[in-house]
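Revision sheet: structure tokens.
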Amino acid sequence: MSFADDIIGRIDAEGPMTLEDYMGASNAHYYASRDPLGRGGDFTTAPEISQMFGEMVGACLADMFLRAGAPADAAYLELGPGRGTLATDALRLLMGVGFKGERHFVETSSVLRAEQEKRHPTATWHEDVCDLPGRPLLIVANEFFDALPVRQFVGDVERRVTLEGDQLRFDPEGRPTREEAPVASEMMMRLAEHLVTHGGAMLVIDYGYAGAEQGDTLQAVRRHEKVGVLDYPGSADLTAHVDFAALARAAIAGGARATRVISQGNWLETLGLGPRAQALAAQNPERAHDIAAQRRRLASEEAMGRLFKVMAVHHRGWPIPAGLGG
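Predicted:
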């Protein structure tokens, strides 16, 4: 029986399921059954576009690590690390300033864990954020919170997934007026509490918004194309725009501090993306055109630069990460 048949059978037997439950179940199956990254997958993340992205993240973490006094017991933690590409590039910078800490990954997909292990055989894996090491953490969450399940409301009625014949549909139909992400907020609060207790900081990089309520932002992507949210249960990547203001509130409720939210493009350029691109092009003149295109894709407003945002959450005694002060 396919996952889609399983969902249809479950709704037929038990009645409509909340959108939050549908999204959670669908994404759990999706990530457990494939490597979704790259041309042969469904989408491409920033670390897979260029090494420069991971290097900028690593430079930020290295600077913060040094300004925090280079604690010997600090560890690197990444949430949803994909193939481990970002960790490879970031840790190269971190280790260059004397970081010798452990690396930890929060990953539920056995398929992606296998890819990560090829690059990071000494890493420690965690199923969730409840069993993290009791030490200062340098945490990276790149395109992680967008895949956590959301709730939607049409007026005051919570949106559910039901059946019409043998087809999935929303009930009620119509454009949602409100979207909430309680799972993301709860996870952020737990991470903030860990930072408060043990020290450290966290970079959150994702597409989303920092201002007013957005309503319906749920989308599905399959083979690099947008598809209907209910068209491919368990076979399409379901995401929603991240509400950075809600994450900041959760972090503050957990006792940590949250920085301002800025665009990915501004942050990367502030950290030195331009000079790094020029240096790479000088070292690899045959790739100069590709490197320039990668920079534009990461930082220009027409590509990822404006839609993607960056925010940090940190222990009160730790420095604000570079580019996020003010």
